[in-house]
Batch of 3 targets.
Target 1
Amino acid sequence: MVRLSDTGTSETDAAPKALPGDGLREGIVDLLRNALGEGLVDTHLVPNDDLWVRVDRSVWRHTGEVLAADGFDYFCFLSAIDWLPSPWGRGEDDPDDPPPERSTEIVQGVAGGETRFQLLARLNDVRRHVGVTLKCDLPDDDLVVDSWVPLFAGANWHERETHEMFGIGFAGHPDLRNMYLPGDFEGYPLRKDFPLLARMVKPWPGIVDVEPMPALEEEEETDTAEGDTKGDESS
Amino acid sequence: MTVLSDRQQLSYIAAQAADARLNVELETEGMTLNIGPQHPATHGTLRIIAHLDGEQVVWAEPSCGYMHRGYEKLTEVRTFPQVTTLINRIDWLGSFANEVPFILAAEKLMEIEAPPRAQYIRTILFELSRIANVSLFLGDLGVQMGAITPVFLAFRDREYVLNLIEGATGGRFHPNFDRIGGLKDDLPKGWIDETRQVMRKLRGFCDEIEDLLFGNEIFQSRMRGIGVIPADVAKSFGLSGANARASGIDWDLRRDQVLPMAWDKVDFKVWTHPDGDCFARCWIRLQETREATKIVDQLLDDLPPGPVMAKVPRIIKVPAGEAWVATENPLGEMGYYVVSKGDLGPFRVKIRSASFNNISVVPWVLKGVYVPDIITILASLYFILGDIDR
């Protein structure tokens, strides 16, 4: 029997391509430095691994244009980071104890940073098999940056999500509606100062762990303390 | 003026409206069609709002968020080993594959590497979850177009794979088997022989589906030339996995990056298709299932001996840093951007799931298609709701 898969309708190059080296990543940094000038704030290159580039807010869209023209036309993701340490830690404090002292110092990660909020995006070059992670500082009093929707159609949903979760505005975005939450939802859930209500109501690991085991005749009573991690199995 | 009853009034209005429509030479009015959130033809709770002109879609928009669970926020209050329990549930049909990139990111930050045997077993389980995931797609595909038989075949043969996953990990759906530094356990006795038999069965299943479904004339006429996505559109939307390869983009993260996994030790073909239509996407997935069975066979042949767990401290603290690791999951590129501050848990985890990008192309691709093709296109794009909403 002749099957479709026997007819050679597929074309693929058999020879494995060499994986990119750091020379290529350095070339990308040079390209961006020439194109952006002062707009390129900082770079971080981990040998044989990855490249981070931090650019100024004013050249955010231009960075996307330069990289897209250089072959980075595969849009991977766009999001943000809130560098404020969480005022509640991991929500494991004993509610009866006085609240512990926590650091409020903002320390940014690789490629540095000056502001609490940083934009985070990644673009890939599928021909040269290399990717670059981009960062961009956003001042607290003006959380707006140029939208990437004219460059990458896929940025539309990612910017909507970032707007909803971090409250970052995107100038030039066609439609910044909420994706997940109701339209009149107040607050930005992924900001660190937005409390995780499940942990506020019942601190982890929860009061169930210190209760004595139930007696045999009460075995029918089930416990529902892990409400936030179950119930997702249906398809 | 006589007083009309409600029923009379309604029929009068309807007659007037019909006349008005005839008067503009059968020009029909627009209509909004709401598909879902609970509809037999949607996978789970995705809602599609489509504006129609006659039989054609003018504008369509998926409405997400019916299954948003806030995993990115929840990871911030958990320790690194606890996070795998959560991320198992992102793409629940290939759940082991979700754990791997996160664990690899944590290992990258800790600068440890799993022992070779653990890398091989990880890759085997990864490919088994791909088979479990995609074989369900192949069966489900028939149901979307009214063919009932393939889904029974798919559930029959997928059961063997789920039994294997259960045998090795203890969990059919949510293995939670991957650990930082290796795996929870080694493979049980007799598992390797059984897996070889199951892989043979699965190749038979692929042939069966190809003969029954892909060779079917009706199936081809419903699939060929429908929902074409060109390569440049696919790239700008960030489509990944089989959806990208069906548009001719030769991009597979198993081959195109260096990872401490065993894919570079085996010989497999990355299939691409030049057409970019529904048929190409489904055909690529069928071929990928075949390749996955071959990968598993090759890995079982040269499974190295040794421990399955590296030396890791009892209390895992991940050094401060940032890491991005993505793997080629059954649905496409699944990546985690992990930020650690040297604490017990991650500071921030950005979950890049494949279906979120894959489904964002829906407003573009549904423009101008006919109503029955909506379901075909959605089926061929293949998404898991948990993978969209996270």
Note: Chain B touches chain A through 76 residues (CB under 8 Å).
Target 2
Amino acid sequence: MNIPQDLLFTKTHEWVKKTEDGTVLVGLTDYAQSELGDLVFVNLPMEGDSVEAEESFADVESVKAVSDVNSPVTGTVVAVNDEVVNTPALINETPYDAWLVEVGEIEDTEELMNADEYAAFLETL
Amino acid sequence: MKLIFERGEEGQFLSILPKCDVPVTKLPEKLKRAGAPHLPHVSENELSRHYSTLAKAVHGVNDGFYPLGSCTMKYNPKINEQVSALPGFTGVHPLQDDSTVQGSLEVLYDIEKALCAITGMDALTLQPAAGAHGEFTGLMLIKSYLRSKGQADVRKKIIVPDSAHGTNPASAAMCDFTIVNIPSAPDGCVDLDALKAAVGPDTAGLMLTNPNTVGVFDKNILEITKIVHDAGGLCYYDGANLNAVMGVVRPGDMGFDCIHLNLHKTFSTPHGGGGPGSGPVGCKAFLADFLPGVRVTRTAKGAYKSGSAKKHFGEVKAFGGNFLVVVRALAYILTLGKEGIPEASKNAVLNANYMQACLKEDYDLAFNVYCMHEFVLTLDRLHKETGVSALDLAKGLLDRGIHPPTMYFPLIVHEALMIEPTETEPKEMLDSVIAAFKELKKVAYENPQALHDAPLHTPVRRLDDVRAARTPVLRYKFS
């Protein structure tokens, strides 16, 4: 299972990447995509929408099921990745490049795990 | 296979039509279509072959085992078909005067009484056309009630366990409720602490199946409905799993205020492509005034009268719903009777437990308890050790003439296969399916590639489900 060292992770299998501008990119982990199976639809919020930590902000549909994606932070969506909306398979192919949204104006962050902690967490599942 | 439009050729046609016995009228030019309609050009023989080919390409209960968990694919007795085909039922129109359709009204009246007796409800509408349609109707009842109490703007939240059918939160969203998902306890039942934490002055209600989605009867049900009632919310029973308990325990006695039933599951009317379905909604007396659809009453002289509820919230389908489906269900209920209804449920539970007991040595149970009418296997370990997934195993079953169980549901179980044999399968069938499962496990360890390649013997091999979801071809395009 691929778990990059430079990212942070949630218990609901989102990854978080801090950018230099103080925003974060949010995506789904390799574990999440392998559990979901082939993704066919991705519903993302709009730019300017506010998101709340540990609350659902998007949903993804695979051939198996529709699943919520939770936001790791409270803030405002500053950019949306249209590429994954058009080609959901990108999440299966390169989960750590296929970011879903960029969130700015961050007010709150849920407790996040580093790569080692996330790897240990996956062992418990 | 060829589609009907790809068979035959210009000039072939069906049979010789009788002479026209009414005067021929010319259509005004403006009403005429611009081009000839696309009709198939086939002889009767070719048409007959077309349908035979279609029939051979599908798998139904009449073809073999069909253990689709949570769907109750039981045998549909032929007597139901005979009864619903009686001209007195097929030749009526819903706008006929009551005095000319007394028999049909009696059917609506009798089945309402029977279904209320089975479920412990006081009134019932037969209008909804399927389960999710029933959920929508039931939630609209709750909404109408809250409105009448002036609480609809405050009580906006519907609580749904994470093991619920996906239609539950979807129906709640359709009715403009906010959905609160609560996690299940490790045994698959409702986590009472999570429920207590979730209820409050904003609670509109709870949606629940019992037995639940993993085939376990929630023993805390009285406490669960009390917690919701104490908070001022209502309790909705999703009747998807009623086949485990009909005539044994009643949702009304468990504390539920309204319910839907799936006649096409529990009451043996055709299911799936053979539909249409029927999802009647029952309720306690305090909700009855809001029911949609035809309400049939019986006068002191024994005549049946159609009408509608006083404060009904509208119509969810035309007239009395899918009436001929209702006729089939009544035929089923009357055939089984008071003794047969609980016996059917008990045999459904027995069959499921027999299969579970025979398979638990070879496969991991998601929940190692006595099950109700269905049980869930988790192929997580098999997948890790052999690379064979629940999907691969399901494809292997197809090659053995068995319809796969429900896959990857409930979502809280990894690599789930959810098996519901129903009461209408004899032991020989169960034994042959158990043998197939055991053999497939051996194949998974000895030659996993064989299952990655399955199915080999079906009309089509493995389908591209991603493309089917993203770019479905939904209609034939004429060249």
Note: The longest strand of chain A covers residues 101-109.
Target 3
Amino acid sequence: MTEGRVVTVSTIRDTPANVGRFVERNLTSGVDHMIVFLDQQQPAVRKMLADNPDVSVVSTDKGWWRGEKPKAVEPRQIANANVANAILATLPSVEWVVHLDGDEAMSFDRADLAACDADVVRIPTLEAASQRTWRGGRPAYFKRLASTTQLRAMAAYGAIDEPTLDAYYRGHVAGKTAIRPHLSHRVGVHAAYDEAGAKIEPAQAGDAQLLHYESWCLEDFVDRWRDFEPRKAKRSNHRERRKLIGLAAYSIANHPDLDDKTRQRYLEQLYDDNVADDLRALEWFGLLVPSPVGEPAAPRRIEQPQLEEMRALLRAMREVGKDAFAQEAPAGSMAAALEQAASALEPGHAARVRSVVERHRSTVAGADA
Amino acid sequence: MTGSHDRIVTVSMVSDTLPNVRFWVDRTLRTGVDHMLVFLDDHRPDVQAWLEQHPMVSVVHTDAAYWNHDRPTPLPDRQMVNANLSLAALAKVPSAGWLFHIDVDEALSFDRETFLELDPRAARFPTLEAVAKRRWRGGEPKYFKKQPRPEDLYALAGLGAIARPDLDAYFRGHHLGKTGVRPSPDVRFRVHSVYEHPDTKIETIIPPDMHLLHYASWCLDDFVDRWRDFRPEDAAGRPFRSKNIGTAFYTLRNHPAMSQAQRDEAVGELFDRNISDDIPLLRDFGLLVDNPLRLDQPARPMPREDVALLETRLKELLHVDKTPYKSQLLQVGRRTDGSR
């Protein structure tokens, strides 16, 4: 019996090299399977992922969105994550789904998650310390979240511009959540909600952490922002400070008047002045932790019939409108959408999916009675 | 009305020392400008006497009587009244072709012959700002800063060369340039544009390779000159950055505990930190142009009768009610950033 599988879901657009790192980091962390929605035509990435038995890849082209593609990336991420959640709710062997970005990786103990009986588990962020290069091609240190006192000390020392988390962390501080796949759970970017839209308070499960790798080295910083043109910046929900640094990197990386050597020099200066961390200061103020990445844990493969059924449902979802999976979609919409997708499945599989939908509706009706 | 309509005229409001005014007039009349109208904003008998004897300058002293004892407090308001009055005075002068409103730290950079061939109703010369450095050999800045693209501003801000990725942080002064117009009694100036009274847009071209050169604080001496008379108590209404620099300058220059040498050093440091441009950086990003100022276009004097007509007209307008010559501010929705 295959039980307790941990599956991640992500919507990404990145280079093959970065996606390769993303997949390797997670599939050696204790994650068992990854569902990856490609946010743009990425044939090289698609081919690489399609060859990996522990990854299920979906191209989210015009056909996927059925002519109603959300303009901003966050609603697309949320819709895809909820598609995965609904599908995984039909797989008995999958216990947890985690919505990750392409620069994030899990760090957790399988036993801690298995022992937890909550529906939602909190996964706080540890951000990779940033240096131009790291020996071995991996960050040796991460930064823990800072207290107000620590922020003030870092600012007074000059290691950060102001005593705020925004100045200290490059990325989000909200962390992520691991959620039991269920038709009455809605996956958000950082949290989980019930069908009425109320946030489900997460429990703690051991030392589970979300490792955030954004701009962990100079090369990653440049890669990330190289294509961040002003039109994209307008639509993005990055913090203002981060947006401006991104725009500066984009401008320098693409400036027609700079030769390669000068361009590199300015990118390095931009990185050193705005991104690189002061490791010594972080250590002095108790904020540096050695990388928690431990011995690789091989994925526990989802058994073949269930894996094929999951992929069949992903294919069937192409014919279903994705509005049902939006954060604000009405209660019952995911169940209805799943039922609609079932009509494209082979009869045995369709019956099992409908049975999950019926059980869910009975539970809801019983709760309402 | 027959006439050549080809003389380039400037109008300016001045409050400066005689050596500075002489330098500025002599230079302006070599750049392609043919005649200058100068409104003296304060009582400077030496400056007035020198300007009055100059054949290519017409001068007006704007005393209390000129303002009908109701002198507008904001400097731009007084400038606009003077400029608009000048339009009315020039409207019937046969040789008057163009009027530009410029400040004492500005110069027009253009080819007069090419400009006169264009023949639009109004023309805007965008700003090039002098690159600031403590000292420039030869008494002129070697480079001017071009208008940046948005991407340039992001890069410069990210690299710490400017405080924010916007034009106000990149340019020390205004960046919209100045507009010249065919003199007419119905036309009015705003600081950077023109309109037909009461509020009709005038089609304005932007001729290629023609600029308004803005020198503000182009070297340490000019910086000191500019802020020498600043008093913190007079700072109300000034832009934030200008207020801060002025106050810092005043404090350092008048510091009771510092020697003169220390004060000079501190002011130099203030200039380096707030005004000096990063020349290698600007060059790398393609934002520098060689100084385009042309001093090979000497003034073509207006016919004597035209000068006489102009000065008669100015005398007639000296004590009129100035209300009709005030500029209408652009409604908020129609303003471009930084404009008035």
Note: The longest helix of chain B spans residues 75-90.
